[in-house]
Write a structure and sequence with these properties.
cell membrane; 8 helices; BioY; biotin transmembrane transporter activity; single chain
Length: 198
């Protein structure tokens, strides 16, 4: 029998561990803002982290694993939510947006931010990468989805989503700082970080 590839094993473990991290952040109770039927949760921080730390493929797979488990009925989302209903409800677009968000964040951080030579430029690029994926991509799916499912005008859904922006920018900053520090210490996490990131 052929020996198992250590790299494959490592990738599988990382995907599972970071899927569990996003699930663990769901233990923090959600905050309901009342403008739109979508709560503020800490799990978007986890999505930003997995993309920035693991890269596009493994980051995206971590989110996919979590969402498959949620779809199967496990109460892994903030507030103990799970099942098909959460994807069909007002929050469904935001949840589905986590998948391409991790992909975009991972790609931009790996192929752009970590290649910057100056620390300030590297941080700015990583922060922008995380914000583009973790805010722009998620909102692009979440806002219209909420409008359709909840029967709200698109403008109301968009206005309601603005409540999330300050907190999401803070999450992007935290994810950026954590990711850059981890990449400095573990340069092979993305299969070898360019010299500029060291």
């Amino acid at each position: 029998m052929a020996a198992e590839n250590p790299q494959t094993t490592q990738n599988t473990v990382l995907v599972a561990v970071f899927a569990a991290l996003i699930a663990a952040l769901g233990l923090v109770p959600p905050i309901t803002v009342g403008i739109i039927p979508v709560p503020i949760t800490l799990q978007t921080l986890g999505v930003m982290l997995v993309g920035a730390l693991l890269g596009p493929v493994r980051g995206m797979l971590s989110v996919v694993v979590l969402e498959v488990l949620v779809l199967a009925g496990l109460p892994l989302l903030a507030g103990g939510r799970g099942g098909l209903g959460v994807f069909l409800g007002p929050t469904g677009g935001y949840l589905l947006g986590w998948i391409p968000a991790a992909l975009v964040i991972g790609f931009l951080v790996q192929h752009w931010a970590l290649r910057q030579t100056r620390p300030a430029a590297r941080f700015a690029a990583a922060l922008l990468s995380t914000a583009v994926g973790g805010i722009g991509v998620i909102y692009a799916l979440g806002v219209p989805w909420t409008a359709v499912v909840a029967g709200l005008p698109l403008s109301t859904s968009l206005l309601g989503s603005l409540v999330f922006v300050p907190g999401d920018l803070l999450k992007a900053g935290v994810a950026t700082a954590v990711a850059l520090n981890v990449h400095r210490s573990y340069r092979r996490l993305l299969g070898g970080v360019p010299a500029a990131a060291r």
